[in-house]
Amino acid sequence: MAELKYIEGYPENIRKEIDKVTKTREKRINYTPPAMTMKERDEVLRIHPDYAPGGKRELQVGPNKGNLAPNEVADLLEAYPLIEQDEVNISQVDYDTDILIIGGGLAGTSAALWANDSGIATERILLTNKLRHGDANSIMAEGGTQAADREVDSVMKHYIDTIGGGHFENKPDVARALVEDAPLIMKWLCELGAIFDREEGGDLAEKLAGGLSVKRMHSCRDYTGLEEFRVLRDEFRTREIPYLEHYPAIELLTDGDRVTGAVLWNLETGEYKIVRAKATIIATGGYGRLHIRGFPTTNHYGATFDGVVLAYRVGAKLRDIDAVQYHPTGAAYPIQIVGYLLTEKLRGSGAQPVNADGEAFVYPLEPRDVEASAIIRECYVRNKGIVTPTGLRGVWLDTPLIEIKNGKGYIEKAFPGMIRMYKRYDIDIRKDPVLVFPTLHYQNGGIETDPAGRTNVDGLWVAGEVSGGVHGKNRLMGNSTLDCLVFGRRAGMSTAEYVKAHKGENKIALDHVKRYVKNLEQAGVKCTRRAPIILPDYRGKAALARMIDVF
Amino acid sequence: MEDNKSPIMDRIAEANKAATTGIDAKDIENWITIHIMGKAYKVPADLTILTAMEYAGYKFVRGVGCRQGFCGACATVFRKKGDYKLQTGMACQTRAEDGMYLVQIPFTPAEKAIYDVTKEPYEASVFIRYYPEVTRCVSCNTCTKACPQDLEVMDYVQAAIRGDFDGLSDISFDCIQCGLCAMRCPAEIVQYHVAQLGRRMFGRYGLGVPDHLRKRVKEITEGKFTDEMNKLVSCSTEELRKIYTEREKEPE
């Protein structure tokens, strides 16, 4: 392949393709393709990775035996533990606490703050993190948080939008909790000092997003999750709540019936630690790094499904685990940023998906699964995508439209993160469109809970992406940060009440692991995989082929 | 809708395999050499520092987080071949270049002050009280040059000294708290902690809770929507589907 000539970030041949987009832009300013009917939605969804043939199998063990799950998920639920019962000495307890929180994103951090607010002393809480406190998908949430706090809006509208987006399969009681707590959460964040985008007069600025009937998205430029999280972390540190970093949980502990702590593992030294707790909250996030169906992901390095693996072994029920969210607009070019998130707020602000012929081919704000399917169809069925130098296909996201609709300077103010990401590759999103293709984004389902975040296993709560039910089969934009904040709070408050009522010494044991191994053996699952996997592996194949494990 | 010759999902997976399973040398045409902590490695040309190190055989447990420029875990310092300048960047956001030599700084030792924003007066003295070293700023601008987000770090430190909470918040807003400014500062200021305090003060006192939000919270607490929500959650899927399809949409 001859050296490509680049003009402002794009190779010459792709630059020629951009001309087609520029030519039709004028006509598209006042044209938006109509939203799909329910029938059209059903039709296009047949090409969605969740519904396209293959990719799933029935689980052979555990509480959800017989349910379908993506192969990558089933692989981990049908994997052997990292530790055998007799390998670790659990008689020496390193941390004895009231509430153990596993995972320090928005959900885990909120849980700690609200447990503390509910009367649990700081030193009776322990938050443990696989990487650093805050290395989580939470801080990567760009677009925003939903809350029905405008006069024209209502919690009922938020509820209807949420369950319509979720294909009416959401668990009603938790979906209700989500929408009813949302304004309260916004108020809490404002009081803690989070800086949300505002209108001239000081009202919260709110935007539309995919599947919303009313402007309800609150943003902090395109760093919404980052702003929310760093405020909560600052408050957490200010209260001096104990926390550990680089200490993933690799197994839960139980007294036979109840979850009573966890085994943590020092990621750097390999030493394990035993935590005994009266209540345990899992807030470990999702599974983007499993690269389901071979998709790239928007997720952080540690999004490897650990929390569900651990909870499943103690008997926690899962739901909607077959529903994977692919964000419609991941970067498809340049190669260094493939799969990275291009926030839905771009489309909420007027950017249109456009095909190789310069046509706007889809209503820009369909629910995510519908929008993603339409883009896949354009690229692989209608062959109206653009092929990148590395063989990926994508459609254009016509970002220059944003400034035509909102005025010059708007992109710089509202999307500094996006400008920065592309500027590093000499692309100016104010002048040129960008190439996008769906990317693995979110674990729609997970561990089932009640509105307090309680699972079916005594002593175990969950909050955030690791849980299932609230989003049904498909989450709307702005409901994930909200999910973390609402159910982090509820889990924190609920565990606090539980702990206060709970007297006496807890036993800790790993018997459930032995039972689970027996189940695997009985089901004929061979011991070829171990889980949790903790981190993905991207080492070069050449280096791996010649590696010798000496230490 | 499936193309039977080669299923669409397989074609998508094949096109993305470098990003999902690690890079295979046989797919690469152009190569460069980078020096990781002094050791030379031949790596593919189109990578970031982070992915180049992975290609070379490093499996990260430190110095990596979100991999997309938001978390600040992969702070890196480097020099380029033939250039005296010591440069900084996030490993996940910086292109690996031929002849580059680098080291990561995955942790910044820096103490965060303990304060309660609900009890602090909204005035400049808050910075002097908790981070008195801000007054040692000599306006050398080294922090600004070190910032991988291209923020005007020195300007927000000056805004803090003046008690300009609004200005500090605006300038520092995109900070990812990677710590590179603090590592380079000759006055030993921890700029990102100063900014965090300032932003929270501005958010709480400069912006506050707007009336429409306060009103809605009150309505919810007083149960204004309870009956209607009770009805809604007990609707059948058919009824909900009807409400959903017939609902009005607010124009853009």
What does the model show?
The complex is a heterodimer of chains A (551) and B (252). Chain A has 551 residues and is α/β, with parallel strands linked by helices. Chain A folds into two domains: 6-50 and 328-440, Succinate dehydrogenase/fumarate reductase flavoprotein, catalytic domain (Flavocytochrome C3, Chain A, domain 1), CATH 3.90.700; 83-323 and 444-501, 3-Layer(bba) Sandwich (FAD/NAD(P)-binding domain). Chain A has helices spanning 12-28, 38-45, 71-77, 106-117, 155-165, 172-192, 224-238, 306-313, 345-348, 368-380, 400-406, 410-414, 416-423, 480-501, 511-522, 541-545; strands at residues 6-7, 10-11, 56-58, 68-70, 80-81, 95-102, 125-128, 145-146, 206-207, 217-218, 243-244, 249-254, 259-265, 272-282, 318-319, 324-331, 352-354, 386-387, 393-398, 434-443, 446-448, 460-462, 467-468, 530-531. In chain A, strands 6, 7, 11, 12, 13, 14 and 22 form a seven-stranded mixed sheet that branches. In chain A, strands 16, 17, 18, 19 and 20 form a five-stranded antiparallel sheet that branches. Chain A has a three-stranded antiparallel sheet with strand order 8-10-9. In chain A, a hairpin with a 6-residue loop joins strand 13 (259-265) and strand 14 (272-282). In chain A, helix 4 packs parallel to helix 7, helix 4 (106-117) runs parallel beside helix 14 (480-501) and helix 5 crosses helix 6. The radius of gyration of chain A is 23 Å and the shape is globular. The model of chain A has no long low-confidence stretch (mean pLDDT 96). Chain B has 252 residues and is an alpha+beta fold. Chain B folds into two domains: 28-104, Beta-grasp domain (Ubiquitin-like (UB roll)), CATH 3.10.20.30; 108-235, Fumarate Reductase Iron-sulfur Protein, Chain B, domain 2 (Orthogonal Bundle). Chain B has twelve helices and five strands. A five-stranded mixed sheet of chain B has the order 2-1-5-3-4, with helices on one face.
